[in-house]
Each structure stands twice: as structure tokens, then as C-alpha cells.
Amino acid sequence: MIEEIIKAASVVPYFKHGIQRISLAKNIPVSPLVVDYLAATLSDYLKSESLFRSFRYGPMEETQDLEPLTMMAAGQSDDNLALKKLKAQIVGNECLLLISFFYEFLLQKRGTAMVRHYGNLGSEAYQLRAELAQENQPFIELARKFWDISEVIRDLDQNKQFQNQLIDRHQAVLLGKPVVFH
């Protein structure tokens, strides 16, 4: 039963719809594959265990401490290919979230140089992820359009049009009412 509620209460359609609308309004073309990837990633990061994860992929498991993104991006020369791909994807995702949702905080507290640092770090991480895999989509597009995509996500967070929609839809699901995305 709980699995059905969780599945029905998914926020993926909310994020997908918002990303599509804002990217169209801003004239920033984003492929359907990247929209799907971003919606799933944003949905996943709503879970606290995604933000404060414990790793099950080799050397990262040895500590429960959070690893700084810059250190993770530097990687280890002895990491296997799967771990390198995972680290690059995590760094790209977390830099994108950082630049998107905490842009003003970074700018105010750390300045333009820090914003640029995390933007470049994220873009380079996605580029590396694309190079490490034969299936480089969606990562090549995320690398090339990192700043534009972060602007779309930032507007998703700040757009008055989308405020309260997530809560309203969640309540509708809990009450057994149909949920419509428009």
C-alpha cells in the first residue's frame, strides 16, 4: 500500500512539467532525455538520504563524512571506471543543485569566484561523465548547457506560478483526488 502512495505522490511530473514550461518560456532548448533526467534527479534529492548518503561503492564507503565536491572531482587515479563515472555524476548533480538553489547564498557569502568555481566544476564533471561512457547523453548536453539549465532550475524554485503546486498535488493524492498537470 505505501509503495502505491509513494508512486502516486511522485514529484517527477511536477519537476518535468516545470522544467519544460520554464525552458520554453526562456527559449532554452532542453532535450526530453535531459528533462527526464533532471526531473528524476531533483525528485531524488528531495530525500534526505540522498543529500546525506552513505556510499556503497568502494573507497567512499570507508568514511561517513561528506566529501567536498572539489576533492571528489579530483578523484583518485586508482578508482575503477564505475566509481569514476559515479563520482563525476554526483559532482555534476550536486554542483547543478548548488548553483540552482543556492546561487544567491553563494554569491552573497562567497562571491562571484565561488559561483564560477562550482559552475565550472559541475560542467566539467558532466563532461567527464560523458567521456567515460559510451552513452554520453544526457551528460554532454548537461555539460554544454550547464549555466542555462541551472537558470531554468533556479526559476523553477522562484517562479510564483509553481508555488504551492507541489503541496496542493500531494494533498490531492493523499485525499484520493485526481492530480492534473497543466
Structural commentary:
By secondary structure, the protein is mainly alpha-helical. It has one domain. The protein is built from 11 helices and no strands. The longest helix is centred in the middle third of the chain and has 21 residues, at 81-101. Residues 54-65 have low confidence and may be disordered.
Short description:
The protein is an all-alpha fold.
Helicity, as a percent range: 55-70%
What series of H and E elements makes up the topology? HHHHHHHHHHH
N- to C-terminal distance: 27 Å
Given the structure, what is the number of helices? Answer: 11
Largest sheet: none
The tally of structural domains comes to 1
Instruction: Give Rg in angstroms.
Output: 17 Å
Low-pLDDT residue intervals, each spanning 5 or more residues: 54-65
DSSP strand tally: 0
Which class do the helix and strand fractions yield?
A: mainly alpha
Strand content: under 5%
Q: Characterize the overall form.
A: globular
- The pLDDT mean sits at 77
SSE layout and pairing:
Blueprint: H1 2-8, H2 12-25, H3 32-44, H4 48-51, H5 69-74, H6 81-101, H7 103-110, H8 112-132, H9 139-144, H10 146-158, H11 165-174
Helix pairs in contact: 2-3, 2-10, 6-8, 6-10, 7-8
Characteristics:
globular, mainly alpha, 182 residues, 68% helix
